């Protein structure tokens, strides 16, 4: 329904406040990859990326993954998000979220997200998210 | 171990970047209440408080509730956070988080948090959080 | 919609296979209390109540708490269950689940459950559950 | 640490009560596959596999995946399990759980599990689990 250009434009328009923090890296049938351009505003003392920043990355990635499939008319709402924080992100690196949809039902969409430090092979965090999808007409 | 004044001072010193967003309302044996002074930086289009802001509120509230019991030497790390988003927060109101510890073990602390719009009786969100506690000497 | 007698009858009829494991202790506006009559079939080696038995207790308790409010016509389906296992249950004691509804929407019901060993004051487990509610006509 | 034969023997000895319900299909560096031989005792009215049965499958699969890496001396304990129920399992089919470890730390192990109806390509359930690992000497 929405290709990479359409998703990037949507991000810029509807998430204007934080759009510059993110960059869509890829969107295809297998899922979606979103970059968090890590800046000072995302860091906790000690240089770790904060939990809320990782949460926001996972949430935006999954939101875009749903829009890619159902189009921009939807106003999906996050109903649950569960995050496992696995490892300290590497200092000075961006984070990459790999999101995939596990279910796209009429009322609920469920997916999971793995978050990596750029260049890293072991996940920094894992998240699963559920969205409520408004009735489609 | 830490009373309300000590917790507020800790918040100001160790969470300097976001300390002005929060205010400790209460800390006692039953748990802890933390206010999010909702500002433009916490809002999504439409005036809703963003998911990451609610996540941050729950996370800081539980972190302080643990410190209240084990003191400021600890460097507890969030290992899991699961949030249910229940209702849209009321526009123009602060959020209040009520945190309680359910377990304070030697290695793990677990608690839950209910988030309300100020003056509201039905929860906006519910969160449960697990922290890994470093070995105490 | 359904009082304690109606809920107990429903349990016996619709959960015939496991109904004898449970007993409804209370159902009122504040929530619902359900007992797991702990038997050998619920135990792991060492005498601990198994995780699946605790899961089942929480799931049935919340299911009944929803039915108490919307009546027996519904076929609510569990969509998410997150359980924190906090302490080893005390040997030779039944478990009591205290369930409360946090949200009863048109499409989703969300609640949490605290599980105690009978006579104990510290929770053995905490669970949150989400159910999808079929359209009501 | 433990190969497929050792894991199957462990299952038979330490989970004697339920061992006949499960069969280890595969264990290698990528993870572990465990079968639930679905029988009447796992079914809810209507022929669906019950939530507790799916929970048990995910829990045993992840437990074995940890043992495969740290050996049989460990007494790992489940501290959290979060399950998303995605689709109704197909009637008359076994379930297969694909478990992978995302982190094996000194104190915590975290992994996720995808559950499929045999022959199906879309997941019936997704679970993430955390285990506390006892100090190794």
From TrEMBL, chains A, B, C, D:
The keyword Transferase does not apply. Its EC number is 3.1.2.-. It holds the Pfam family 4HBT. GO terms for molecular function: hydrolase activity. Residues 46-123 form the Thioesterase domain. SUPFAM superfamilies: Thioesterase/thiol ester dehydrase-isomerase. InterPro entries: HotDog_dom_sf, PAAI_dom, Thioestr_dom. CDD domains: PaaI_thioesterase. Coiled coil: none annotated. Transmembrane segments: none annotated. Keywords: Hydrolase. It is an enzyme of class 3 (hydrolase). This is PaaI family thioesterase. It comes from Pseudogemmobacter lacusdianii. The lineage of its organism: Bacteria, Pseudomonadati, Pseudomonadota, Alphaproteobacteria, Rhodobacterales.
């Amino acid at each position: 329904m929405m290709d990479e250009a359409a998703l990037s434009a949507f991000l810029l328009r509807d998430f204007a406040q934080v759009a510059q923090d993110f960059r869509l890296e890829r969107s295809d049938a297998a899922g979606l990859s979103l970059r968090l351009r890590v800046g000072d505003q995302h860091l906790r003392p000690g240089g770790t990326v904060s939990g809320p920043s990782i949460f926001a990355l996972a949430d935006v990635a999954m939101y875009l993954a749903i829009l890619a499939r159902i189009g921009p008319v939807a106003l999906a709402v996050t109903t649950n998000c569960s995050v496992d924080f696995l490892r300290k992100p590497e200092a000075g690196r961006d984070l990459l979220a790999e999101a995939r949809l596990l279910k796209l039902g009429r009322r609920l969409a469920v997916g999971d997200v793995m978050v990596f430090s750029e260049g890293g092979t072991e996940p920094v965090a894992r998240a699963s998210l559920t969205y409520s999808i408004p009735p489609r007409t």
